[in-house]
Amino acid sequence: MELIYEQVDPPDYAEARYRTTTTLAFISPDTVLPRVMEQLHADLSLKIGQLTDLDIGVWNTSEGQTFIDGKF
Fold it and tell me: How many whole angstroms separate alpha carbon 53 and alpha carbon 21?
């Protein structure tokens, strides 16, 4: 799995890595899925302190509205 995720190749290789991971997960889910979840957790982990007021404001803005300088 590390070899799959550590590759720094052209963007079109992303599809090949995705397909490889899904194939391996189909063949051996008990082995592959925990490692995939670990990688997702590492990639997506974000400390709440890293979010700015701008980030939260944009996130809280209703669909179809534009967030401008703290105003909805």
Answer: 36
- Give the helix, strand, coil percentages of the chain, each rounded to 5: 65, 5, 35
Report pTM.
Answer: 0.50
Q: What is the pLDDT of residues 27-55, one digit of tens each?
A: 999 999 999 998 888 877 777 678 888 88
67 vs 48 pLDDT, higher one: 67
Domains of the chain by residue range? 2-46
In order, the DSSP letters of 15-39 are HHHHHHHHHHHHH-HHHHHHHHHHH
Least Cα distance to 1 among 46, 13, 22 occurs for: 22
- How far is residue 71's CA from residue 66's CA, in Å, rounded to a whole number? 9
The whole-angstrom separation of Cα 4 and Cα 19 is 11
